């Protein structure tokens, strides 16, 4: 357990002041991909729980998504750009081995000066690490009243015909770390890591390598370890009942359900009881993820953004972050006053309304040009 509790040097409460989301302009239903690959569509829809894959046309990438999300988050924040003292971008869609993706974004935003700017990499966990670092920068007092811009942005592509292909997706979530208008984040969190080769992308490779079964085992184990640490020797039912929603990293929706059922089994619960927990606290948080597909670092934060919509101030939620390799961390957030109006919903609605479907031919053409890092 990490606990910043009484070690904070800053007395100003910090949390998420503003959220901006950017989704790409194209999508393909997984049923179309199933047709293209000659697979029973039920495998993708029922077996994996997927619906749509969000896709980027040429010229769109993790940078353009990040810039779009950041502009939207900044437009709803009432301080000037000069008050940003840190930009941290979590991604696994790197463009360069040296230059951080944050430099491309800062350039587009005109963010120059006494600003710490960097990229954070730990597979899908990078955005959460960036968020924690920004909070801890604030809590340490080093921020000296400045705010941080944290972005999670990715384009998730597998090689064609890879078993991961139906889980592809893309998206970005930007969060300004300042007054906790949208949500405060608890100083206590529950990390767990254990080195593994479950999912990785060697330098120079365009697409990831995956040990599918190992990746499922690692994810499930990380959920059990992190929630086990949260619950400790207390009663699991009463601890979990304190939360209005439980959000997870979403590599594909069925993964989340599998992990919840597995944890329920470990607690000695009946399958029905674990199913009920999933239905009551988790299922609704996956609504946007089903339409974006896996957006790697952004996936958890898309789910958190969905869960916060309309939440009464003071309602607590959990956020489980997982990154292959592997590292995980369980956070606790409390809804602030701006969760009720949830202005970021308009980002999602606008992008979903405007996006266009890609047919099988269009998808193959797109994939002909695509690289994971492009
Ligand atoms: N109708 C209904 N269901 C069907 C079906 C049909 N016709 N055919 C198969 N299914 C079911 C299977 O029974 C299975 O369900 P269960 O697991 O509940 O038994 C499900 O569909 C998937 O079938 P397979 O296990 O045969 O699928 P697969 O091996 O082809 O691919 C995968 C699954 C390995 C997860 C693959 O999608 C993959 O490699 N994904 C990327 C890795 C990943 O996402 N891992 C998750 C943890 S790692 C992480 O979280 C980081 C990250 O973001 C990547």
The CATH superfamily of the largest domain is: Thiolase/Chalcone synthase
Name the bound molecules: acetoacetyl-coenzyme A
Query: What structural class do you assign from the helix and strand content?
Result: alpha+beta
Number of strands: 16
Number of domains: 2
Q: Which series of helices and strands comes N to C? A: EEEHHEHEHEHEEEEEEHHEHHHHEEHEH
Strand content: 15-25%
Round the Cα radius of gyration to an integer and report it.
19 Å
The average pLDDT is 95
User: What's the architecture of the largest domain in CATH terms?
Assistant: 3-Layer(aba) Sandwich
Q: Count of helices?
A: 13
Low-confidence stretches: none
- Terminal CA distance: 37 Å
Please give a structural write-up.
The longest helix is centred in the middle third of the chain and has 20 residues, at 212-231. This protein has 13 helices and 16 strands. It is globular. With 374 residues, it is an alpha+beta fold. The protein has two domains: 2-181 and 344-357, Thiolase/Chalcone synthase (Peroxisomal Thiolase, Chain A, domain 1), CATH 3.40.47.10; 188-339, Peroxisomal Thiolase, Chain A, domain 1 (3-Layer(aba) Sandwich). The strands form three sheets. Strands 1, 2, 5, 6, 7, 8, 9, 10, 13, 14 and 15 form an eleven-stranded mixed sheet that branches. A three-stranded mixed sheet has the order 4-3-16. Strands 11-12 form a two-stranded antiparallel ribbon. The protein has helices spanning 30-37, 41-47, 62-75, 101-109, 126-139, 212-231, 236-241, 253-266, 271-282, 287-292, 297-308, 345-354, 360-369; strands at residues 2-3, 15-22, 26-29, 52-55, 84-90, 116-120, 147-156, 169-178, 183-185, 188-193, 199-200, 209-210, 243-248, 316-323, 327-335, 356-357.
